[in-house]
Amino acid sequence: MIRLDRVSKVYTRGARPALDRVSLEVERGEFLFLVGASGSGKSTFLRLVLREESATSGRVYVAGREITALSQWKVPSLRRQIGVVFQDFRLLPNKTVFDNVAFAQQVIGKPQHAIARDVPEVLELVKLAGKERRMPHELSGGEQQRVAIARAIVNRPAILLADEPTGNLDPTTSAGIMTLLERINRTGTTVVMATHDEVIVNQMRKRVVQLVDGEVVRDEASGAYEKVHIAEGEDPDRVRAGSDGDGEHGPTAEAAS
Ligand SMILES: Nc1ncnc2c1ncn2[C@@H]1O[C@H](COP(=O)(O)OP(=O)(O)OP(=O)(O)O)[C@@H](O)[C@H]1O
């Protein structure tokens, strides 16, 4: 569903790459956590999949298409296959819950009867039935994120990208959001979630890909989030190669396939 083939991204010439020769495949229907410290390249990964940024080298494939050199006019059709959720919800403050979700359908020209059918259905799924007429500021953070998720999935995208979706939420509310994302994943949607949240990652036991300085240092089919510490004076390449004695920390992409 998503494949990166030796992808590097350099934002500023001469600077360290934000992603450094990343090769990774995400199968249709998979749920993948992308973890790593701030600045490790998680958002860059998501932006490349969305074609908000282009790779400096290597190739990116999404839903069977090579998007590295996709012409600009084809980008909207790529994005229609991808729903996105952010840490800060990004709802339209002057629109109701219903209209925030409906807007995602209106911009792609969905007819009114489809909107009248789909929006209540998706609001039911995210457990917001009855709150259609509320404005975003009349909702809790968790409810606002549910609206954002409803908006992201209302057009039935093949892929859902979530960038720190629980970053502004308390643990209980976060758990509810994770239950919802898992349910969406079970309907066949491929989910890639970037997060710092070790508790969530460790509870879910999904595939975990960990980045350090733009490099994949771990890829485990049902992993935990173990922080990779690079101590002062330690050779970071030794850590990245996973040669720390127990042999458990190297990239294990094959284990997930
Ligand atoms: N538009 C940009 N121009 C220049 N450098 C950038 C740009 N976006 C990101 N970077 C750099 O690329 C690296 C990776 O950033 P990225 O945002 O992908 O990390 P992240 O893992 O998502 O971090 P966070 O968890 O803080 O969101 C960082 O060193 C960052 O400073």
From TrEMBL:
InterPro entries referenced in this protein's UniProt entry, alphabetically: AAA+_ATPase, ABC_transporter-like_ATP-bd, ABC_transporter-like_CS, ABC_transpr_LolD-like, Cell_div_FtsE, P-loop_NTPase
Main location: membrane
Biased composition (Basic and acidic residues): 227-251
Compartmental location: Cell membrane
Keywords in alphabetical order: ATP-binding, Cell cycle, Cell division, Cell membrane, Membrane, Nucleotide-binding
Record note on quaternary structure: Homodimer. Forms a membrane-associated complex with FtsX.
Listed NCBIfam families: FtsE
PANTHER family documented for this protein: CELL DIVISION ATP-BINDING PROTEIN FTSE, IMPORT ATP-BINDING PROTEIN
Protein name: Cell division ATP-binding protein FtsE
Native organism: Miniimonas arenae
Encoding gene per record: ftsE
